[in-house]
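Discussion board: Methods & Data

I've been asked by a reviewer to show the raw model output for two of the constructs in my manuscript, not just the figures. I'm not sure how much to include, so I'm pasting the format here to get opinions. Each protein appears as its amino acid sequence followed by a line of discrete structure tokens. Is this the kind of thing reviewers expect to see in a supplement, or should I convert it first? Here is construct A:
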Amino acid sequence: MRTLPLPPRNNANDLQVCINSSNPGIQTQFQNAKQDILDAFDAYMNHRAWDPNTPVDLSHISAAVQQAARNSYALTYSKRALAGMRQDILKLGEGICPYCRLERATTLDHFLPKSTNGVFAAYAANLAPMCTICNTLKGTKGSAIAQQYFTHVYFDNLPRDTPFLIAQVAIGIKHIATNFIIDFSTGLDANVYQRLAYQISIFRLVPRYQLAAVDVIFEQAEKLRDMENTGCSSDVRHQSLVRDAVSEANKFGVNHWKVALLNALALNVDFSDQGFKKAL
């Protein structure tokens, strides 16, 4: 979960492409509504119209024009007039889904669903890169309750260096167990905390992270075993874990699931001592 830069798009030009490509029967109405739609874009950008606490009133834009705007999303498909928009958005964040940070972002998600907010259907700031798994799980979820909404990848300022995603590691008799939680004591806005917790549940991130953690723990266990075989002490092995955690944090920020896991492994003295052998 991370914040991305806004897509590098000229929204007025993109809207004009939508108007020019619309059905001739609605084109004049669509053109006449252009300024109203641009005002809605401005409200989205500058007045948090994407937030359920501050919705924008679109009732003055006719249903026919809103439907035409909704239909314009098809222009983002391959070889269509706005295919470049899709490409620009999918490239953000190194092409990785900003919500799970596990899978490649290969789809676009409408933050405000196009089924109910057609005016924003082909508006770049309402489109986020997302993997197929997260997009399927999200569907059209979201409500008028701020706590049951998703963080916005462009407008919710999620800190890179303040950890809010925490991994927990427990070494049992035969196995190593992991868990991932949100730390509610790091000073973020209360609504952001609730949204983070909500999307962790909706995107099933805990079991997905736990599954991904198996490979990371095994790799670290192999590394520590090899270090032990060459005579490295438990303290040296521990420092190796710390360095790996710092290295990954420098690349991805402290709230990447792998960084949270490596930090948890480094904090668990038993793992670098003999506990790592439970993963082999």
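Construct B, same format:
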Amino acid sequence: MTITERFSTVDITVHERMSFWDRIGIVNNAPVDIRPRPADLFNGALTVSSFGALSVARVTMTPPHGQSWEIALHDSEHVFVQLQDHGTSDLEQNGKRVRLESGGLTVLLGSQPYRISIDETTRFLVLKLPLPRVAARVGDLARLVGTSASSSDAALLSSFLHTLLAQEELARRPGRDEAVGDVLLDLVALTYHGVPAAPVPRPALGERWQQTVRDFVDRHLGEPELGATMIAERLGVTPRYVQMVFASLGTTTSAYVSGRRLELAATLLQRGGEQVSDVAFRVGFADLSYFYRSFRKRFGVSPKRYVAR
């Protein structure tokens, strides 16, 4: 079901506006680190609509003239597509610079900081999209950083986004989220269809997916609910697809997750300083007896003997 949230600095005390802006995040509650903080003239408004694993944010900002911001989203699982709606924005990421005029569009990687400079009241739309799903349609996203799709190339995407945001009740109907997400992803791919790039070989694409899933598992080992369903929800794919990725690695989701947890547990036990039970819970085992059985099966000894040897 579509969820829409609205925020504005209008009723916020002037000297607290940037702190408020930091807390809400520019895109869908993502942790945002903005440096430097603009002067007291800053004002901003934000509307975020979430469609399942995707979201669309409408951002309006009126920073002081010439102010440049360094923004870090700390999000390696998503890519952000910025569509300029009014005014201009100068963006820089990975040493690549692009100026967005009204109607223009560019790609930003959530895993790396970027700089934005605004000289006037500016309004833009930001799509937050699961990186694997975009990469599967577009290919190597790094090549798109610092490039701008023209207003004519982005016209269909822009039109759909404005219609979507203007007709919230239609988008709220049950079962629409996944369909809306598929349309947005297809329109992003269509927008960049003419951007020159070397074709992505299928084996390389598969290897990139495998690495994406493995990296996700390693970052979330401590979460007991880690499994095919959680991975699928966070990466914006189906549980069946996640199972296929692990099958291509010659294993299953549960076996791979359990193996990585046990490897991490063994490393932590070797370092010392923690009780066995603390280590077990830290790496995601909610059942201590199951952890003991699994550890013994994997390493041939109990956790305590493993530490003592």
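Answer (T.O., handling editor elsewhere):
This is acceptable in a supplement if you add a one-line summary per construct. For B, something like: The chain has two domains: 3-191, 202-308.
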